[in-house]
Design a protein that fits this description.
The protein is of the alpha/beta class and about 180 residues long. It has 4 helices and 6 strands, in the order H-E-E-H-E-E-E-E-H-H. The longest helix is centred in the first third of the chain and has 16 residues, at about 10-25.
Length: about 180
């Protein structure tokens, strides 16, 4: 892992961290490095490896995992969906436990009057498009050249652009504020 505090081996610290996170997110949502082989598929060679994968189901679980990482000194690498293949991959810069936010996939609010949405990190373009269609909205999700199961929020934060999208404010993908 990262630093070594005294006589506690890094492997033991990682094990204790994963054990504590398992109590938070549940055993079904913690994958070891061996079980996370699909996280090693990359678009180009990369030095960082996924040491394990945590999949919190809500913001409180994600915050608890962040707190445990801080206490244990375990490096975390957050990923909303990991589908930004044109921008690299979902691999961490250096070895880290992956914080997979794909289960945080709720659309919290759609304001058709102002053309804005509040979403969690795991909401996909496909999911947002379906929600807008269900409301028979005059708004649409722009074509951005990526897969429909990519994260809307991650694409915006990465400065992604889309055809049919007019930028408002300072964001290049039609976004103006982040909270």
């Amino acid at each position: 892992m990262t630093k070594n505090d005294g006589d506690v081996p890094d492997g033991m610290r990682a094990g204790n961290f994963l054990e504590a996170c398992t109590a938070v997110v549940g055993r079904d949502h913690v994958r070891s490095a061996v079980d996370a082989a699909d996280w090693r598929r990359l678009t180009f060679p990369w030095p960082g490896r996924a040491l394990a994968v945590l999949r919190p189901g809500n913001a409180e679980e994600a915050l608890a995992c962040l707190g445990l990482a801080g206490v244990s000194g375990c490096p975390l690498h957050p990923v909303s969906r990991g589908r930004a293949w044109g921008l690299g991959s979902r691999a961490p810069v250096s070895d880290a436990v992956m914080l997979d936010l794909s289960r945080l996939d709720r659309i919290l609010d759609i304001d058709l009057a102002h053309g804005s949405v509040r979403i969690e990190p795991g909401v996909t373009f496909r999911q947002l498009d379906a929600a807008l269609r269900a409301r028979e909205a005059d708004w649409h999700v722009p074509a951005f050249g990526g897969p429909p199961d990519a994260s809307v929020l991650a694409n915006a934060l990465d400065g992604g652009r889309g055809r049919g999208c007019s930028a408002i404010g300072s964001g290049s993908s039609g976004t103006s504020t982040w909270r």
